[in-house]
Design a protein that fits this description.
It is a single chain. By secondary structure, the chain is mainly α. It is built from 12 helices and 2 strands; from the N terminus they run ααααααααββαααα. The chain has a domain at about 120-230: Serine Threonine Protein Phosphatase 5, Tetratricopeptide repeat (Alpha Horseshoe), CATH 1.25.40.10. Strands 1-2 form a two-stranded antiparallel sheet.
Length: about 230
């Protein structure tokens, strides 16, 4: 008889908890919508975090990680979804892992995620990221491969931002590819490839004369020209 009573109490308690969770989930769903309306990012983060506790969801975790990414909170983004590469990774998860790892300086770990994204979409902006990462890892053959692939699909409307100056600026992506191509060419053979690298930098500057990084690279490779410019 006691067992029946205990079972009844347990069943009632479980049912009450389930109803309570459902009510809380509805509350935080409404709260999430309101925070989106108000543009309150911290409120959005709080709402999704509570919903993930109440009703765990991979899609919701990806969304939370993406919000962290957009806020520049790369560690929090990766802590939310992990850094393992999974066959079930959504496009959002792939972008979060790729960009967060690169932003934190772990470019080698970011590489397979960018490769997966490029395989799926052949996006020239992703090709640029892959070329740049491979150049920094001294994988010059792969860097050149992605530069050539990027040139095939690059659009005039696409741009690339640079941040080395006090005021960030954007150049046409095609110009940025020529700049990267020049760096790869020079690093392939620093003794003989300087003229070829300079020609590529000239192509970059012909598209965007205000491309500061290309001009700095050109000055570094042709100190005589830099001296004339200063005079």
């Amino acid at each position: 008889m006691k067992n029946i009573i205990y079972l009844a109490i347990f069943s009632f308690s479980f049912g009450a908890t389930a109803q309570s969770n459902d009510a809380l989930a509805k509350h935080y769903e409404a709260y999430y919508k309101q925070m989106k309306t108000q543009g309150d990012v911290q409120g959005i983060i709080n709402a999704i975090t509570h919903l993930n506790v109440l009703k765990p969801s991979e899609a919701r975790k990806d969304t939370l990680a993406y919000v962290y990414l957009n806020e520049g909170k790369f560690n929090q983004a990766l802590n939310t979804i992990g850094i393992e590469q999974k066959s079930t990774d959504s496009d959002m998860a792939l972008e979060v892992k790729a960009v967060s790892l690169k932003s934190l300086g772990n470019i080698k770990a970011s590489l397979p995620f960018f490769e997966t994204i490029y395989t799926k979409y052949q996006n020239p902006q992703v090709a640029y990221e892959l070329a740049e990462i491979n150049l920094n890892l001294n994988n010059l053959t792969d860097a050149k491969k992605y530069i050539d692939l990027g040139f095939v699909d690059v659009k005039d409307s696409q741009g690339k931002s640079f941040y080395e100056t006090q005021q960030p600026y954007k150049v046409p992506l095609k110009s940025a590819f020529y700049y990267l191509d020049a760096l790869v060419k020079f690093n392939e053979n620093k003794d003989t490839n300087k003229p070829a690298a300079l020609l590529l930098l000239d192509k970059a500057l012909a598209i965007e004369p205000g491309f500061n990084m290309a001009q700095l690279a050109k000055n570094a490779l042709s100190p005589q020209e830099a001296t004339k410019t200063e005079n």
